[in-house]
Structures are given as structure tokens and as C-alpha cells.
């Protein structure tokens, strides 16, 4: 059985370890750059989606604010021109029809208190005991001191629709104009955003934490800040304590990303997604990174063992040559394709390299044999040292040998030993050895 020679070079091991470290470090840098960039792109994309939700909500609210503002301006003009309650009521009725037809089908009418008289553009007649000054819309308008006020939305238990009053105190400091608006359109925005953006939840909060709209309609009207330890309270508390465009929270063992955008400065659009869902597109980067890294490390490991194997063979050959130099008078290593050779040092058995490698190996070997070979053996010697036939002569053989006499009539032995072949079996390197026996032939 052919003995396998295994060799481990400390130098190669160190180089291999450093190479692994550098390659892993380089891959880690590239991976981190790609991962960070892709994550930023995902976060920016989700931020943009929430900003669009906030913009749609703001646009809806702006219509109601604009209606109240224009109504307050027009009624103030009517009052200053001396209009009575009938004229103001006619204006309210007309604007109610226009608003219901062009903007919101769920519109319940423009109403208010004007010089102490309650008027409703939709024809609603107050019940006995109705006191406008006790109503939230009246008190909110007074507190706003002339600015447009958004009254805390409430959930209509009959229709399960969130309603909100928008109101304004007139310049006379006693008249108030108001309208109730259904937030169904905002609810539709929240529901559609979940379907389009892949969100877990999408909702709109007012400035006090009331759920104005929610993709899960069962959450409508809830006051998250007043709840116990719920997911909604966790999100809203974090949002109102330290506003951020996005943040992550943990709840019941799961991680979530929360994205927010302001709606007219006081409200918030909030969209929530599970962290694993948000980061799912990044899995391909992890897969690519580890696949390429593992392939690279396997390639380096193969190269390591390949180099060690070659080094081991080289050392084994070197050891054999050292033995041979003690047995033979000359040992040449010949590279056939390049037609170059080097002669082993008789003491160390090592071959020189670089400039010490000599050219015209075939020519030099022929000259050497011509000088030392007896005339009777020269033709055989020339045939024996012919490089072009070595491939066929050494097929399946460990060596070929020729016995001859030198010019001093001494017995000599010349031998070729194959050293290296390529993947196709072509002979690349051989050893040529010469042994001169002191015994003279009679």
C-alpha cells in the first residue's frame, strides 16, 4: 500500500488563519453595509406609507375645518349687516345641503348658537332641557378662544361610527358655529392601508389618545391612555412621551415596529408591523452572505490542504533525494517542457532555484554523457537520455535504468525517475541520476 505523507506547515497555518480572519472581516463589512442600506430603504418606505395615510387624513379634516371657518366668516358678516335668526337659519340650511351633496353624505348639518338662539341647518329641534352651553362643542369653542376646535371624537353606539364636532367661536364672543362629521372616511383610510401596505394594524389617534379610526373596528372609540396594561396603551404611552418617526416595542414575547406621522399637529397616524415581517426581505441578504462566506471558506480550506499536500510531497521528495545523493554521484531535476535542470547539492540534497536553474537540459545532459561514456555505449546512452521518449518509457514504471561503461572502463548506472505529472498524465518533471562504480571492467 502506498504510504500517504501528511504535512502541516506552521507558516501556512498562520497564513490560513489570518486569511480566514481577513476574508470574514471583509465579508462582514460588506454584509453590514448592504444590510444597513436595505434596512434604511425598508424603513424609509414604511415611513412614506404612514405619511401618505396622515396626508389623506389631514385632507379630510381640512375640508371640515374649512367649512366651519367659511361658515363662521359668512355668519359674522350676516350678523354685522343686521341679519336676523331666519336669515342665518336659511344660510345654515343651504350650506348643509351643499356640504352633504358635494363632500360628505353622512353630514348631519351645520348648527350653533347665534346671539343666544340655537339654530340647526338640518332641521333638528332640540328636546326639552337641551342646554347648548353644556355641550362639549360649545365648551371646546369657548376654550379655543376664536381658534377652530376639534372636539374629542366619540363612538356612536347605535351606528358604531366615530363622530366628531368641529366648532369655532365668532368675533362677537358669544356666537358659536359647529358641525358634526362622521369619520367613516378616515376609517376607510385605515382599513385600506392595512390591505395595501401589509401592516398588522393601522390607526388614527386624537390628541388625547382616543382611537378615531382603526383597521380593527372593534378598537374604535377606545381611550388607550385610560386602559390597563394593553398593547394600545404601550404604543400610545411611548408615542406621547417621546415622539419618534418609528420605534420598536416588545409585547407578550413579540417584537413590533411602530411608524407614526403627525396629522395637523395634534393627531397621529400610526401603523404597526411585526418586526419579523418587516425584516423578512433582509433574509435573502443573510442567506447570500452565509452562502458566499461558507463557499469561500471551503475554497480556502481546500487550498490549505492542497498546498500542504504539495508541500508534504515536496518534503518527501526532498528526503528521498537526500538519500539518493548519498547513493548517486549526480542527481538532476529536469523540467521537460521548459528544458531546464538543476543539480542537487551532494551534501544537503537540496536543489538551487532562481538564477541557479540551468537551461538546455537536453543539450547539457547529452554533453555530459558524451564526455563520460565509452565509445561502445554512446549510441545507447544517447537513446536512453532522449527526453521525447521518456513519457512512453516511464508509463506504468517507477524508473528506467541503463548500465554502461565510462571512459575509465568503470561500471555506471543512469536512471530516470518520474516526479511530476499533470492532470492528464503528461510527464512534467523527472530525476536523472548517475552512479559510478569504482570497479573497473577487464
Draw up the topology in text.
Elements: H1 10-80, H2 85-102, E1 110-114, E2 117-120, H3 136-144, E3 149-150, E4 154-156, E5 161-169, E6 176-182, H4 184-197, E7 201-205, E8 211-214, H5 231-241, E9 246-251, E10 254-263, E11 267-274, H6 275-278, H7 283-327, E12 330-335, E13 340-343, E14 358-359, H8 361-372, H9 378-384, H10 390-393, E15 400-405, E16 410-421, E17 427-440
Antiparallel strand pairs: 1-2, 1-6, 3-5, 4-5, 5-6, 7-8, 7-11, 9-10, 10-11, 12-13, 12-17, 13-14, 15-16, 16-17
Helix pairs in contact: 1-2, 1-4, 1-7
List keywords for this structure.
442 residues, alpha+beta, Beta-Lactamase, 2 domains, six-stranded antiparallel sheet, 10 helices, 17 strands, rod-shaped
Q: What does this 3D model show about the protein?
A:
The protein has helices at residues 10-80, 85-102, 136-144, 184-197, 231-241, 275-278, 283-327, 361-372, 378-384, 390-393; strands spanning 110-114, 117-120, 149-150, 154-156, 161-169, 176-182, 201-205, 211-214, 246-251, 254-263, 267-274, 330-335, 340-343, 358-359, 400-405, 410-421, 427-440. With 442 residues, it is an alpha+beta fold. Strands 1, 2, 3, 4, 5 and 6 form a 6-stranded antiparallel beta sheet that branches. Strands 14-13-12-17-16-15 form a 6-stranded antiparallel beta sheet, sandwiched between helices. It has 2 domains: 7-308, PAS domain (Beta-Lactamase); 328-440, Beta-Lactamase (2-Layer Sandwich), CATH 3.30.450. It is rod-shaped and about 150 Å long. Strand 1 (110-114) and strand 2 form a beta hairpin. The two termini are 43 Å apart.
Describe this structure in a few short sentences.
This protein has 442 residues and is an alpha+beta fold. The chain contains ten helices and 17 strands.
Amino acid at each position: 500500500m502506498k504510504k500517504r505523507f501528511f504535512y502541516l506547515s506552521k507558516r501556512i497555518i498562520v497564513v490560513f488563519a489570518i486569511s480566514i480572519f481577513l476574508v470574514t472581516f471583509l465579508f462582514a463589512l460588506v454584509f453590514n453595509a448592504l444590510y444597513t442600506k436595505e434596512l434604511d430603504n425598508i424603513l424609509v418606505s414604511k415611513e412614506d406609507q404612514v405619511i401618505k395615510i396622515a396626508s389623506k387624513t389631514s385632507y379630510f379634516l381640512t375640508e371640515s375645518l374649512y367649512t366651519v371657518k367659511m361658515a363662521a366668516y359668512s355668519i359674522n358678516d350676516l350678523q354685522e349687516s343686521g341679519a336676523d335668526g331666519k336669515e342665518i337659519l336659511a344660510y345654515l340650511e343651504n350650506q348643509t345641503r351643499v356640504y352633504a351633496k358635494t363632500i360628505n353624505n353622512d353630514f348631519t348639518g351645520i348648527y350653533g348658537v347665534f346671539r343666544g338662539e340655537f339654530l340647526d341647518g338640518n332641521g333638528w329641534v332640540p328636546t326639552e332641557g337641551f342646554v347648548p352651553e353644556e355641550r362639549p362643542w360649545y365648551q371646546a369653542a369657548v376654550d379655543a378662544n376664536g381658534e377652530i376646535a376639534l372636539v374629542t371624537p366619540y363612538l356612536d353606539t347605535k351606528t358604531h361610527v366615530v363622530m366628531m364636532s368641529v366648532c369655532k367661536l365668532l368675533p362677537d364672543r358669544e356666537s358659536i358655529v359647529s358641525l358634526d362629521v362622521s369619520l367613516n372616511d378616515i376609517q376607510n383610510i385605515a382599513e385600506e392601508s392595512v390591505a395595501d401596505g401589509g401592516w398588522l394594524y393601522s390607526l388614527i389617534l386624537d390628541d388625547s389618545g382616543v382611537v378615531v379610526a382603526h383597521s380593527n373596528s372593534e378598537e374604535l372609540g377606545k381611550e388607550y391612555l385610560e386602559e390597563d396594561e394593553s398593547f394600545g396603551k404601550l404604543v400610545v404611552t411611548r408615542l406621547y412621551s417621546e415622539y419618534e418617526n418609528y420605534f420598536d416595542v416588545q409585547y407578550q414575547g413579540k417584537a413590533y415596529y411602530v411608524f407614526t406621522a403627525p396629522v395637523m399637529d395634534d393627531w397621529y397616524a400610526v401603523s404597526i408591523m411585526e418586526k419579523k415581517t418587516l425584516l423578512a426581505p433582509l433574509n435573502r441578504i443573510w442567506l447570500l452572505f452565509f452562502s458566499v462566506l461558507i463557499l469561500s471558506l471551503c475554497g480556502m480550506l481546500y487550498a490549505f490542504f492542497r498546498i500542504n499536500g504539495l508541500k508534504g510531497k515536496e518534503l518527501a521528495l526532498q528526503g528521498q533525494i537526500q538519500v539518493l545523493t548519498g547513493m548517486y554521484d549526480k542527481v538532476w531535476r529536469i523540467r521537460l517542457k521548459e528544458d531546464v535542470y538543476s543539480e542537487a547539492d551532494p551534501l544537503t540534497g537540496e536543489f538551487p532555484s532562481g538564477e541557479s536553474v540551468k537551461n538546455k537540459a537536453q543539450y547539457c545532459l547529452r554533453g555530459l554523457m558524451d564526455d563520460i561514456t565509452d565509445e561502445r555505449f554512446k549510441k545507447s546512452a544517447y537513446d536512453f537520455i532522449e527526453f521525447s521518449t521518456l513519457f512512453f518509457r516511464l508509463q506504468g514504471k517507477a524508473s528506467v535504468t541503463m548500465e554502461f561503461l565510462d571512459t575509465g572502463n568503470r561500471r555506471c548506472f543512469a536512471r530516470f525517475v518520474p516526479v511530476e505529472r499533470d492532470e492528464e498524465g503528461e510527464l512534467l518533471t523527472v530525476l536523472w541520476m548517475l552512479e559510478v562504480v569504482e570497479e573497473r571492467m577487464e
